[in-house]
């Protein structure tokens, strides 16, 4: 068995695309999840090269070094927490990362900052704001419900953080997004 770490796998569609490319190359996948593929056997250099040639144009990349794999795992855990888990349980990000990656949070934090040029916390906030934008555009939840779903302590805190990151208030963002949308019959 062989495990490959793949950069930029951030959603279920990414998993489907990578799975499809692996199938085309007749590589037997045992398991696939965000950023990680387990194959039934080690790749030959030719197979690895062929895989690189199909993944890179699609925006994916096989990660070979340990530090990059850890960074990608940190990102995937955060993306999963923010975008794919509908849990209202308040979790401490540092505890989640430390337990899932089996490293001290200070090590993870320093490594992430060194490689990415930003902090884990800023990356986490950026992901949360992207999720807020998505939920605002869907227009199914109130700002209070969005704040609750993403574990903000208050609507005011969410609004302040949103404005700090985007330069816009959530209500203004929502307004300009709906102003740009055309009715289906005008598309």
CATH architecture of the largest domain: Orthogonal Bundle
Radius of gyration: 19 Å
Across the major sheet, the strand order is 2-3-1-4
First-residue to last-residue Cα separation: 50 Å
Count of domains: 2
Which blocks of ≥5 consecutive residues have pLDDT under 50? none
Describe the structure.
- This protein is α+β, with helices and mostly antiparallel strands and 187 residues long.
- It has two domains: 2-64, Alpha-Beta Plaits (2-Layer Sandwich); 69-179, Orthogonal Bundle (Arc Repressor Mutant, subunit A), CATH 1.10.10.60.
- The protein contains nine helices and four strands; from the N terminus they run βαββαβααααααα.
- The chain has helices at 12-24, 45-55, 66-84, 93-101, 105-116, 120-138, 143-149, 155-166, 170-180, and strands at residues 2-7, 29-33, 36-39, 61-63.
- The protein has a four-stranded antiparallel beta sheet, sandwiched between helices.
- Helix 3 (66-84) crosses helix 5 (105-116), helix 6 (120-138) packs across helix 8 and helix 6 (120-138) packs across helix 9.
- It is globular and about 55 Å long.
């Amino acid at each position: 068995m062989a495990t490959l770490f793949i950069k930029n796998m951030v959603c279920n569609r990414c998993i489907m695309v990578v799975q499809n490319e692996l199938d085309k190359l007749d590589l037997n996948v045992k398991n696939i999840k965000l950023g990680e593929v387990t194959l039934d056997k080690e790749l030959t250099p030719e197979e690895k090269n062929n895989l690189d040639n199909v993944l890179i144009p699609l925006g994916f990349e096989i990660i070979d070094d340990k530090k990059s794999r850890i960074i990608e795992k940190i990102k995937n855990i955060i993306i999963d927490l923010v975008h794919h888990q509908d849990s209202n349980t308040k979790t401490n990000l540092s505890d989640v990362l430390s337990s899932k990656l089996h490293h001290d949070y200070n090590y993870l934090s320093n490594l992430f900052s060194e490689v990415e040029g930003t902090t884990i916390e800023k990356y986490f906030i950026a992901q949360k704001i992207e999720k807020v934008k998505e939920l605002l555009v869907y227009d199914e939840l109130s700002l209070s419900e969005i704040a609750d779903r993403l574990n903000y302590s208050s609507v005011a805190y969410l609004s302040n953080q949103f404005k700090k990151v985007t330069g816009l208030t959530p209500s203004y963002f929502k307004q300009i997004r709906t102003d740009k949308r055309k009715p289906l019959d005008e598309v």
